[in-house]
Amino acid sequence: MRQAMTGNEAVAYAMKQINPEVVAAYPITPQTGIMQKFADYVANGQVDTEFLTMDSEHSAMSATIGASAAGVRAMTATSSNGLAYMWEIVYIAASYRLPIVMPVVNRALSGPINIHCDHSDTMGCRDSGWIQIFSENSQEAYDNAVQALRIAEHPDVMLPVMITLDGFIISHALETLSTYEDDKVKKFIGNYIPKHPLINPSQPVTYGPLDFFDYYFEHKRQQAEGMVNAKKVIQEVGRAFEKEFNRSYGLFEEYRMADAELALIVLGSTAGTAKAVVDMVREKGYKIGLIKIRCFRPFPEEELAEALKRIKVLAVMDRSLGFNGVGGPLFNDVRAALFGRNAEIKVVNYVYGLGGREITPNDIWNICNNIRDINLTGKVQSSVNYVGVRE
Amino acid sequence: MSNKKWKEIPIGGLILEPGNSVKYKTGGWRVFRPVHDPTKCSNCLICWIYCPDSSIIVKNGKIEKFDYDHCKGCGICARECPPKIKAIKMVKEE
Ligand code: SF4
Ligand code: SF4
C-alpha cells in the first residue's frame, strides 16, 4: 500500500506490525515522534505491547534488556545524548547477545546543544557490538525495521541491531512509501523462540554473572564471531526480503559504479542528493559512481574493496567527525578496507553537515570536481576537507 | 574448574547449570578468616542468615563449621553476631 508518512511514522508503523511484547520509551528529539505514534497504537489497542514509560534512556535500555532476556521481543528508540546516556547498557545488550532492535534517529551530540542531524551519536557506539544499518529515506527506514529482527534473532548472530535514520531530514519529512500487509510482515518476521529465556522455571539460567580473566575473553571472541556472521545473514535476509517485497538490500548499494573511475561514498539521506548529482556530473562526461553504505557494522570490508577496485579517486563523505586528528570514522574504515588491497586509489575525506548544516547539490558537485582534479593532477591538497564550514 | 574453549561455552556469559557456583572456589580471596567460638555461641543462626556465600554450615540447628573453600572473608558474620555474644572473630590469614 502507498502511504504518506514521516520517517518516524514509518518506523512506528513497522513496530506496530512487529507488535513487540515490550517497548520501553523515553522521549528525545527527533526520535520522540516514533514513540508518540507507537503510544497511539498502544492506546488504540492496535498492538498488545507492554508499553513502559521510563525515567531515562539508561532505564529504557535496561528495561529493554530485562524484557529481552526474559524471552520476548523488546524494542526502544533514541537519539543523540539519549543514546550516549544509554551507552553503558547498550554495550551490555550486545554482550548478553540479546536480539533487541532499536531505531536511532541520528542527531548531533552535545555540546553545544544541537537537535539536528549528524551521525556523531551512532558513531559514538560504532564498536559497541551492535549491528548498525543506515537508511536513505523513509522507505528504507521502514524496510530496515522489518528486516532487523530476522537479522538480530538469527542463531549465528544473536546481536542487537540499530537501524538509523537521519534526524528531521528523514524522521520529520513526509514521503510516500510502500508498506506491506500485516500478515505478510508477520510471516516474514516469524515467531521468536528464545533459546534461554530468563523466565523459565524448568530451565533456570543466569544472565550477567561475574566473568573474569578466565572466561571474559572467550565471550568476547564469540561476540566477534557473531558480528562476522552477521554479514552473511544481512545479505540472506536482504534476498528473502526482495523475494517477498520486491526491494533489494545488501551490505551497500552501488550506483553507476560499473565503469566508474571516480566515486563517492555516503551514509544515510545524503545518498539521495548525491545520486542526483552523480547523474548531473555524468552528463559532463565524468565517469563517476556512488556507494551508499547500508550496513556500517559489521563493516563490509572485503566487499567494499572489491567494488572499489577500479576506482582511482574516492571521496568519503562523513557526517560526523572523529576527533582523532585523522578524519571521520567512515573515512578511516574505508581506508583500512583498501589498505593492502588497492594501493593506487586516492582516498579523500569530506566532512559535512555537522549539527544539521545543509549539504546542497552544489556542495556535492564541488566534491566531484575536486576528485576529478585530483585524478587529473595526481595531487591531493588535503586529505581531510570540511564542506560547508565558513573558512 | 576446567577452562573450556570459546566454542564450547554458551554465548553471552549465560550460566545454564543452576547451582554451579559451588564449583567456583572463592576462599582464596580471603584476607581475614572467621573463627567461631562455640562456648560463646547461642546458636541464634543470625550469622548463617547473613552469610552471602552460604559458607556457614549448620548441623542439627547448631553452627558446625565454616566452608573455607567458599568463605571469602567479608566479615559480615562477625559483624552481625549479637554484640553481647560476639562469638566470631576475624583473624588475619597467614
Ligand atoms: S566471613 Fe563472610 S563469607 Fe565468610 S562465613 Fe562470614 S559472612 Fe560468610
Ligand atoms: S550469630 Fe553469633 S551467636 Fe548467633 S549463631 Fe552465629 S556465631 Fe552463634
Overview of the molecule:
The complex is a heterodimer of chains A (391) and B (94). Chain A has helices at residues 7-18, 32-43, 57-70, 80-95, 120-123, 138-152, 182-189, 216-245, 270-283, 301-307, 329-338, 361-377, and strands at residues 2-6, 22-25, 50-53, 74-75, 101-106, 131-134, 161-166, 174-178, 252-255, 262-267, 288-293, 295-297, 313-318, 346-352, 384-387. Chain A is an alpha/beta fold and 391 residues long. In chain A, the strands form 4 sheets. Chain A has a 6-stranded mixed sheet with strand order 9-11-10-13-14-15, with helices on both faces. In chain A, strands 5-7-6-12 form a 4-stranded mixed sheet. In chain A, helix 1 (7-18) packs across helix 2 (32-43), helix 3 (57-70) packs parallel to helix 4 and helix 9 packs across helix 12 (361-377). The model of chain A has no long low-confidence stretch (mean pLDDT 97). By secondary structure, chain B is an alpha+beta fold. Helix content of chain B is 11%, strand content 20%. Chain B is built from 2 helices and 4 strands; from the N terminus they run E-H-E-E-H-E. Chain B has helices at residues 46-50, 76-80, and strands at 32-36, 56-59, 62-66, 88-92. In chain B, the strands form 2 sheets. In chain B, strands 1-4 form a two-stranded antiparallel ribbon. Chain B has a two-stranded antiparallel ribbon with strand order 2-3. In chain B, strand 2 (56-59) and strand 3 (62-66) form a beta hairpin. Chain B is elongated and about 55 Å long. The model of chain B has no long low-confidence stretch (mean pLDDT 95). The interface between A and B is medium-sized, with 24 and 15 residues. The structure holds iron/sulfur cluster (SF4) (2 copies). One iron/sulfur cluster binds at residues 34, 51, 53, 55-56, 66, 71-77 of chain B. One iron/sulfur cluster (SF4) is lined by residues 36, 41-47, 63, 81, 85, 87-88 of chain B.
